[in-house]
Design goal:
- This protein is of the alpha/beta class.
- 42% of the residues lie in helices and 16% in strands.
- The strands form 3 sheets. It has an 8-stranded parallel beta barrel with strand order 3-4-5-8-9-10-11-12, surrounded by 4 helices. The protein has a two-stranded antiparallel sheet with strand order 1-2.
- Helix 4 packs across helix 5 and helix 8 packs across helix 9.
- The mean pLDDT is 96.
Length: 302
């Protein structure tokens, strides 16, 4: 497993991040057991960074991870210090809205810590931008969480470049990550300045839904049948060339970007969790990167 260093910190993370959104399944004993096996497979494969959110599985995913962490601590007392545990908050329901209110964020973090059976989060991210957020108020909330020892570092998720700049302007410490959707279907971050800003500021982009449009339908899919066929043909040709599976090639396509994108792997199948690592070994060419982009767009770059 490759590791990356988060700028201005002592944190080293596995390049591939294990996403815990599905680990609890339907919260049945069978699905929970499957989730625990998946986490153990990720650990054995060298994943050190585990991504959570307070709303995943209606909080059951964090609780399940906390149960397993208790077991792991008995087997390996120092295991907690070897992990990066990230969680997110900011999405509320009844009604559905985004909320960065101080009391809500602090209470959410405290609840996540209890469920995860840990004293601190290595990183806390704001899940989706609250259009009504006050940067100074959020900065004050972050500093309170940090001074209390409950959160070590901070980042954002689904923020535009201007929203990142606004929040960063109120903070003394750098935002470490911006977790965004980026895949063969959604390439907005290539053109809207998000990945450019990540390179400029040393922010690590974390890709959620990295296999969208290939291994499973992308959010808000707009691909036509012709689009899907072009991509499928090009992927098949390139996968044969690089001796890998098409979905592994898509990961390599993301990993090629100089912003050092870290894809989230959310499978609960151990074999797939392990197989994702092959993408890290693919010496993917500049020319093939553009061939796949051309297949995706249906035209060559002007």
């Amino acid at each position: 497993m490759q590791n990356i260093h988060y700028k201005n910190t002592t944190l080293f993370s596995s390049r591939l991040i294990y996403g815990c959104m599905r680990i609890a399944g339907d919260n049945s004993a069978q699905d929970k057991a499957k989730g625990k096996l998946a986490i153990r497979a990720a650990l054995d494969a060298g994943y050190t960074h585990f991504d959570h959110a307070d709303i995943y599985g209606d909080s059951h995913c964090e609780s399940l991870f906390g149960e397993l962490l208790t077991e792991l601590k008995k087997e390996t007392p120092a295991i907690r210090e070897q992990l990066i545990i990230t969680s997110k908050a900011g999405i509320r329901r009844d009604p559905q809205r985004y909320d960065f209110a101080k009391n809500y964020i602090i209470n959410s973090v405290e609840s996540s810590l209890q469920r995860l059976n840990t004293d601190y989060l290595d990183m806390f991210l704001l899940h989706r931008p609250d259009y009504l957020f006050n940067a100074e108020d959020v900065a004050e909330t972050f500093m309170q969480l940090q001074s209390s020892g409950k959160v070590k570092h901070f980042g954002v998720s689904n923020f535009s470049p201007s929203q990142v700049s606004l929040l960063q302007s109120a903070l003394d410490e750098p935002l470490l990550v911006n977790q965004i959707e980026v895949n063969i279907h959604n390439i907005t971050s290539l053109t809207d300045g998000t990945l450019d800003q990540c390179q400029q500021l040393g922010i690590t982009p974390i890709a959620w839904c990295p296999l969208g449009g290939v291994a499973y339908p992308a959010w808000g899919n707009t691909f036509s049948t012709a689009d899907e066929q072009r991509i499928e043909i090009e992927l098949a040709q390139q996968a044969k060339k690089y001796n890998c599976l098409p979905w592994q090639l898509i990961l390599a396509w993301l990993l090629k970007h100089p912003a050092n994108i870290s894809p989230i792997i959310g499978s609960t199948t151990p074999e797939r969790i392990i197989a994702a690592k092959q993408a890290l070994t693919i010496a993917y060419s500049h020319a093939d990167w553009y061939r796949l982009l051309e297949a995706r767009n249906g035209y060559a770059q002007p």
